[in-house]
UniProtKB/TrEMBL annotation:
Lineage top rank: taxon: Bacteria
PROSITE patterns: PG_MUTASE
Species per Swiss-Prot/TrEMBL record: Pseudohalocynthiibacter aestuariivivens
PANTHER family named in the record: BROAD-SPECIFICITY PHOSPHATASE YOR283W-RELATED, PHOSPHOGLYCERATE MUTASE
Protein name, as recorded: Histidine phosphatase family protein
Length: 180
């Protein structure tokens, strides 16, 4: 049965940052109004997919996208393994306890309090996740996906993650069949 990948809607970081510009220092960027509209439009497209479960990254933009599309349709589970490659401020998450107090209908008890990459930082204090660490994490996530049997399944996540996982780029709120 099918696994669908869904990239999050436009975030405040996406709207503020252009390639080559300095990091606008927007941490765990939420959706913009345009991003919320994109998620509403994706909801209409997702209605016919028969999704039985949803896995979302713990980054706010992904959670907001997953809830907009799938609340009252399928259970949503938060999984940190397919979070974005940490290379900008927006990829730094918020503690699990903070997320738990904001997103009351979701469970964060299985996450470590600090669930994103920690390590050497750039000039802005943003920890940079090494590419090989990211690739290994995504390989592990792909193995986890292969073991999931409750399908059709939707995975709400991020551009670099899906590029590494599936080999293609995705627009905000694009829905694509996972070829794995």
């Amino acid at each position: 049965m099918a696994i669908y990948l869904i990239r999050h809607g436009q975030s405040e970081f996406n709207a503020a940052h252009k390639d080559g510009d300095p990091d606008p220092m927007i941490f765990d960027a939420p959706l913009t109004p345009k991003g919320r509209l994109q998620a509403e439009q994706a909801k209409a497209a997702a209605m016919d997919l028969g999704i039985m479960q949803v896995i979302t990254s713990p980054l706010t933009r992904a959670i907001q996208t997953a809830q907009t599309i799938f609340d009252d349709i399928a259970p949503i589970r938060v999984v940190a393994e397919h979070r974005e490659l940490l290379s900008y401020s927006c990829d730094i998450g918020r503690p699990a306890s903070t997320l738990k107090s904001e997103f009351l209908d979701l469970s964060f008890d299985h996450l470590e309090e600090i669930w994103w990459h920690q390590g050497l930082t750039n000039e802005n204090g943003v920890p940079l996740e090494p590419k090989d660490v990211f690739q290994e994490r995504i390989r592990g996530f792909a193995q986890d996906l292969a073991r999931l049997t409750e399908r059709p399944l939707a995975v709400v996540g991020h551009g670099n993650t899906f590029r590494e996982l599936a080999g293609f780029s995705m627009a905000n709120c694009e829905i694509r069949l996972y070829p794995g």
